[in-house]
Request: fold
Amino acid sequence: MIPPAVQKLSGLADRLEGGIAPAIDKGRFFEAMSRIPAAVHIATTGGTAGLAGITATSVVSVTADPPTILFCINKTSPLAARLISNKVFCINTLTALHTSLADIFAGQTGHRLEERFAFAEWTTLVTGAPVLECAAVAFDCRLAEAKECKSHLVVFGVVAAVEYGKQNCNLTYAQRKYHVFDYGADNHPPRTLTFEAGCA
Reply:
């Protein structure tokens, strides 16, 4: 039985489509979201529709049965069409070594979709989607569903395989800057560094 609270939420997409006025303006929303630290990932796809990849921070686990994750992507992104056609994607979680790569896949350098892959070493696991060889972790996924919500698609994927990298410093993004979360040695507490400082 679906709880009443969940039933009330089930019509959220319909209500959004109905044109409910936002409670705050976009500027305040963007500023608020910029204050939430997020891990930085590169979402990739590969297959008959071609290679593509973008930098993403809106990645969330959904359920462990079956293992499922989601990420959000603008509908106008070239990755969106290729991903849906290929029906596979990989979420590659970045480390302190990947600030330049994150900018490349964010479109900051003007490189085309396929050209972006020349700046790192890639492999594949199960689905054929590109897996970053030195990622902190990679989630190789088969597309389960893509739900449209205003300007974006919410993309759900069932995890077909994972690949662990060396447990090291994860790249994060907050207040429109890169930061590094250092796990620390066994006898030292975790710490957060600016990305220029790197990881020891």
